[in-house]
Amino acid sequence: MTSSLFIVVLAITALNHNYQKMTRHSVPRILQPIKKVFRLATALVLFAAVSLSLTNCVPTPEDERLVSAEHQLSISVSPGTCEQLANGEQHLQSSWNETGLTPQHISVLNWNIYKENRTGWREDLRKFGREKDLILLQEAHLDDEFQTNLAQKGLYWNFNSAFNYKGAATGVMIASRVSPIESCALQEIEPLLGLPKTALVSLYPVAGSAKQLMVANIHGVNFTLGTATYKKQFEAIKQLLDNHRGPIILAGDFNNWSDKRSAVIAELANDLGLSALSFEDDGRTTVFSNPIDHILYRGLDVVSNDVHQVESSDHNPITAVFRLQQQFVAQSTGQ
C-alpha cells in the first residue's frame, strides 16, 4: 500500500505541475475545458488515493444496518430496509398528533462532522446542536464517547453505518428530541472504491397536525467517472419522498461538486417541489466552486438560517428554523 500511495503522489505531482504551467498565464477560452479536466483529474486521484488506503483497512457492512436508541433504552440493530416507505405503507392517522415537533419552530442542524478528526468538534457540536429538534450528521463516528453524549442529552437517534474507522462505526445519523414514528436506511456503493455511502429516512409527528414530517439525511456518492451511480442513489431517495404527502426536509453532504451532479439535484428538487435553503452570506463548504452541503424543504416556511465557520471539520455546519405551513396544520386527516 505504501508503494502504491507513493506512485499516486508522483502522479499528483506531475498533474499539478502541468496544471500550474497551464494556469500561470491566462488560458484561452478554447483550452478552458482542458484546464477543468486537469483540476478534476488531480482531485479524483488525490481523493481516490486517500480513500483507497481506507478501503483495505476497514470492514464495510454488506447491507443497510440501522442502529437505533431511545433515551436510556438499549441500542437495537436492524436491517433497516425501506420497503414499507417505498410501498407507501406509512402510518396513516385519522386525527391530529397531540404531541410531536412544534409546528411554529422546527430547528435543524446539518453537518458533516469529518469523523471527529479535528479538535473542537465536541464544543462546536454542543454549541450548534443545543436545543435543536433535528440533528443531521454525516461521517458521524459512533464510538462510546459519542453514544454517551447522546444518552446524556436524552436524544432519540438512528444511525446507518458505512464503515468502521478507528474501531467504531462511521455513517449518517439523525438525532431528535422527538421519537421518530418510523425510520429506514439506504446504501449505495462507491463504484471506484467499494466503500458505501449511506442515507437515513425518518418520519416525525408534528403536534396539531395529522401530517408527518419526512426527514432524509444523505451522504452523496463521491468518486465516480460519470453520474449514473450518483443519480441512482438520489433516485432511491426520491422514490421514498415522492410517496409522502406531507412536509419534507432533505439535507446532507450531497457531494455535488460538478455541474452535472448539481443538475441531478436540481431535477430532483423540481420533481418533488422542494426549495433549496439559500444564504445571504453563503459560507458553505465548496468543491470546484460548488456548495456541497444542502437543506431542501417542502411544506415549510423559513424562519431563520445560517452557516457557521468552524475549524473542527472540513465542512461548515448549517442551522435553520422552519415553521409548518398552515395548509398542513389545518388538515386533520390523511397522510
Protein model, in words:
This protein has 335 residues and is an alpha+beta fold. The protein has 2 domains: 2-55; 66-330, Deoxyribonuclease I, Chain A, CATH 3.60.10.10. Helices cover 30% and strands 30% of the residues. It has helices spanning 2-23, 32-55, 83-86, 121-129, 144-152, 228-242, 259-272, 326-330, and strands at residues 66-70, 76-78, 106-112, 134-141, 156-165, 168-176, 182-189, 196-205, 212-219, 248-253, 275-276, 286-287, 290-291, 293-298, 300-307, 318-324. Strands 2-1-5-6-4-3-16-15 form an 8-stranded mixed beta sheet. A hairpin with a 2-residue loop joins strand 12 and strand 13 (290-291). The longest helix has 24 residues, at 32-55. The chain is globular. The chain starts with a helix and ends in a 5-residue tail after the last helix. Residues 1-27 have low confidence and may be disordered.
Total DSSP E strands: 16
Q: Calculate the terminal CA-CA distance, rounded to whole Å.
A: 52 Å
> What integer is the average pLDDT?
81
**Helix-strand topology string:** HHEEHEHEHEEEEEHEHEEEEEEH
Largest sheet: 8 strands, mixed
CATH architecture of the largest domain: 4-Layer Sandwich
Strand order of the largest sheet: 2-1-5-6-4-3-16-15
The CATH topology of the largest domain turns out to be Deoxyribonuclease I, Chain A
What is the top-level CATH class of the largest domain?
A: Alpha Beta
**Count of individual domains:** 2
CA-atom Rg in angstroms: 21 Å
Strand content: 25-35%
Structural class: alpha+beta
